[in-house]
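Protocol step 4 of 6: structure prediction from sequence.
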Amino acid sequence: MAKKNVGSNFDEFLEDEGILEEVSAVAVKRLIAFQLAEKMSEKNLTKSELARRMETSRSALDRLLDPDNTSVTLQTLQSAVQALGGRLNVELEFESKARVS
């Protein structure tokens, strides 16, 4: 007899384990680092050149591009996106609680 999906969804599992926020932050940072690196490649920009355009140090850019370093400021991210010709959009999403009548 085949079992159907039993139990909660993956987010609920991560929440039960107490690691949902950490895992989500790392996933978002990895995506950001990947997208920035891809855009740098498309524009044939070196890290040194992008750091110069951002008016920051190469080590600050390395931290931004490190997929495992989740400590990024919006200012640094905005600077990188702008230096690559983009526009930063930030979206917040909240779960709504069911209303009790």
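Step 5 (inspection) to follow. The two ends are 41 Å apart (CA to CA).
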